[in-house]
Amino acid sequence: MSLYGHLQERGPHEKPVTVTTLSRMREEAEKIACITAYDASFATLVDVAGADLVLVGDSLGMVIQGHDTTVPVTINDMVYHTRCVSRGLRRALLVADMPFASYALPELAFRNAARLMQEGGAQMVKLEGGMLQVRTVEFLSGRDIPVCAHIGLTPQSVHKLGGYKVQGRDDAAAKRMIQDARALEDAGADIVLLECVPSELGAAVREEVGVPVIGIGAGPDVDGQILVLYDIIGLTSGRRPRFVRDYSVETRNPLEAVKSYVSSVKDGSYPAAEHCFS
Length: 278
Ligand code: KIV
Prior knowledge:
Oligomer: single chain
Structural class: alpha/beta
Strand content: 5-15%
Shape: globular
CATH superfamily: Phosphoenolpyruvate-binding domains
Bound molecules: 3-methyl-2-oxobutanoic acid
Number of domains: 1
């Protein structure tokens, strides 16, 4: 096999998704369907269902470990689950979350991101925060670590924010978020992930940056959508956020539910008005 053969052959029928694929999808207005996974079996399922990007989210702290927040998740937890997911994927791009306190300084972020890539098999890392993360994003990106910059509602800041709330509702906050997105792109972020903002702001951020913008509760006018797997297959317990759509209601099994999610993202029927914030 040639030097680059292994990567090219990961997908039996389709080429694996790369950062270049995501940029092309944005240019060609093909919606990017993203989903979380935490183990090899579900990774295989979501890959087969056609997800373009799979995130090993620190939401595993809640849906796998049973915590109330993502704060207790450690870098060792993330490396372990990323390694499990990487074994199940053939086509989708694998992104791993950097957990709370694992990227407080650029050098620390580099060490932990390198672990997620070398030990976990991640192809990109995600970190939360706006302007304050610019130096870290620059540091990682300058060392060939692809970065997804997560702004808007950043769940690791829940104790500072005083709860999970829609962000960017007033003009000043919306302006700051647009500036954050621009600065993160300039620092080298490959993707922006935007959580829980009014749809109008989602569209404005998408207009202002050149990299793909993935939304979760950010309205329909972004380049792609992401949801937590367990929400899609109807396993959410407790209060369900407005942006969640439970696809298990209309399908008979988890594979059909995830396929239905992917096709609704692709054809633009998800998110509908009832999943959006104003
Ligand atoms: O941790 C996670 O699953 C996430 C998504 C909700 C975007 O950050």
